[in-house]
Design goal:
Elements lengths: L62 H20 L6 H12 L6 H26 L17 E6 L2 H7 L10 E5 L8 E6 L8 H8 L12 E3 L18 E5 L15 E3 L2 E3 L3 H14 L8 E7 L1 H16 L5 E7 L9 H14 L8 H6 L8 H4 L8 E3 L5 H6 L12 H19 L6 E4 L23 H9 L8 E3 L12
Parallel strand pairs: 3-5, 3-8, 8-9, 10-11, 11-12
Antiparallel strand pairs: 1-2, 1-4, 2-5, 6-7
């Protein structure tokens, strides 16, 4: 069989094209196997590799073959002197790879691509997890779990909102977060009023209406709460299985505004309907959530919500059947103002603007004092006739910053700042001393705020009791002596920072 092959000249460089070959040249027969030179290294890294070309059969003993061999010998000798050494197996493979598999990317670019891929993968995994667990865009996740204490948002119905004119500042329907009670707590209720400052003029109220503090349009659909509001037994052992209602604060006036018609400002209607919001929520809880079967209700609140408790506790009590056990728990809302003529004028003007002087709430105070004073806990607290447990830090952080205008850390204040702090502590303790005999109090020497809704509810210690333990003993009538836990130390109780 005829077989073609390469000239030996061809093995020193690139294989020649057919057009470059000498048609009269006789092809050199070579074996079909790979031929390598003897090499001492075991991996044959220096071996010469000859491609196995096909060859023609010929008579090697003929004179023509001898002349051809001589010619080839001279040709290969000249080629060896002028051309580089034939490639070894390893060099040949590297050169071939460089020619056919050359990658345009540098090592740095490859690393960057790998890192970017990992980041994109991790981001996709996190977004998927947030989506499935209901933490993305406020949706109800496929794997959302009520056992984790997540409360669901409910808005007041359109019909009820229109009938009662219960609207947030921006005209959206008010709402609340709700977790149903279980077991023995099925007919017992924790009703909590949210906090978050106030708006004191139309400009502030308009700005507030564009946020969650004045609207329900952008609220997340589920939320989780801590401290007294927790649904975990280890955090709130006495009340964890009670129904939980967390009323969203969106009127900017401590649930106490009562202006009939909206006020137009910058082309927007602003609604001041705090009392109507609270009443609408109570109606919805009674009609839809089963509060008609309630045997016990605790009205709690923090910050501005606590201020609302001082003002609204007796009103809520009057909305419930007389057989219901009702008690109030205001936390971090006992703000004490040192009034001068300018400050008094400010409170009067705000009360008139927001319609806060009108309403059925706290009749005992309204009969004894000027209406605007009943908006301030320092005047309203002694007139609350419902059973109430006051929870308030002696050096409330909001009061230090916004009332006393202190810039020092409570534990580092000196001189006039420290004296102002001690004066505030004495005023807070003095107000609790004027409460009725059935009232309780827990006043730690802390610069905390919103104790009831944080882990501090189970950590701060005064008289050997935490707020959680002191309140539970008072609520269930387990207190042998006084229910007033007043911290005797100056700033600050070390358990405030555990």
């Amino acid at each position: 069989m005829e077989r073609s092959g390469y000239l030996l000249d061809d093995l020193t460089g690139e294989p020649p094209s057919p057009s470059d070959r000498d048609s009269n040249a006789r092809r050199m027969p070579v074996p079909d196997l790979w031929e390598v030179e003897d090499t001492p290294d075991p991996d044959f890294s220096s071996a010469r590799v000859l491609l196995p070309p096909e060859h023609e059969e010929s008579d090697d003993d003929s004179p023509h073959s001898i002349r051809e061999s001589e010619r080839l010998h001279v040709a290969t000798t000249d080629a060896a002197a002028s051309e580089p050494e034939a490639p070894t197996s390893r060099r040949w493979r590297v050169e071939l790879d460089n020619k056919t598999k050359n990658c345009p990317c540098t090592t740095k670019q490859l690393c960057l691509a790998v890192c970017l891929t990992l980041v994109l993968f991790a981001t996709a995994a996190i977004v998927t997890w947030l989506y499935l667990t209901g933490r993305l865009l406020g949706r109800k996740g496929i794997f959302s779990n009520k056992d984790k204490g997540e409360a669901r948002l409910y808005l007041i119905g359109d019909e009820m909102a229109a009938r009662t004119k219960a609207y947030c500042l921006d005209g959206s329907r008010p709402g609340y977060y709700f977790t149903p009670g279980t077991g023995e707590g099925r007919n017992k209720w924790r009703l909590h009023l949210d906090g978050g400052g106030t708006c004191d003029n139309l400009e502030e109220c308009y700005t507030r209406s564009l946020t969650n503090r004045g609207s329900t349009r952008r609220l997340k659909k589920r939320d989780t709460f801590n401290g007294f509001l927790s649904t975990h037994q280890d955090e709130c052992p006495e009340f964890f299985n009670w129904n939980l209602v967390y009323v969203h604060y969106c009127d900017g006036s401590c649930f106490s505004s009562n202006r009939t018609d909206p006020v137009t400002y910058k082309g927007s209607a602003l609604y001041f309907r705090g009392i109507s919001i609270l009443d609408a929520v109570l109606d919805d809880l009674t009609d839809v959530r089963g509060m008609t079967n309630a045997t016990a209700v605790i009205l709690s609140g923090h910050s501005a919500g606590a201020t609302a408790v001082y003002r609204q506790a007796d009103h809520v009590r009057n909305r419930l059947p007389p057989t219901v056990q009702f008690k109030a728990l205001p936390s971090s809302g006992l703000f004490v103002w040192e009034l001068d003529p300018d400050r008094e004028e400010f409170f009067k003007r705000r009360a008139k603007l927001l319609g806060m002087q009108d309403g059925p709430d706290l009749p005992a105070c309204l009969q004894a004092l000027e209406p605007w004073k009943c908006l301030l806990p320092q005047f309203a607290a002694p007139y609350v006739t419902s059973d109430m447990f006051v929870l308030n830090a002696a050096y409330d952080s909001w009061a230090l910053k916004n009332i006393l205008k202190l810039k020092c850390d409570a534990r580092q204040c000196r001189g006039d700042d420290l004296r102002a702090m001690e004066r505030l502590r004495a005023q807070v303790i003095g107000i609790t001393a004027n409460l009725g005999g059935r009232q309780g109090a827990f006043i730690p020497s802390c610069d905390d705020h919103s104790i009831v809704a944080t882990s501090s509810f189970g950590k701060i210690v005064v008289g050997g009791k935490t707020p959680a333990e002191a309140f539970s003993d008072w609520f269930f009538d387990r207190t042998a002596n006084s229910s007033r836990y007043i911290d005797s130390t100056s700033c600050c109780n070390p358990t405030c920072y555990v």
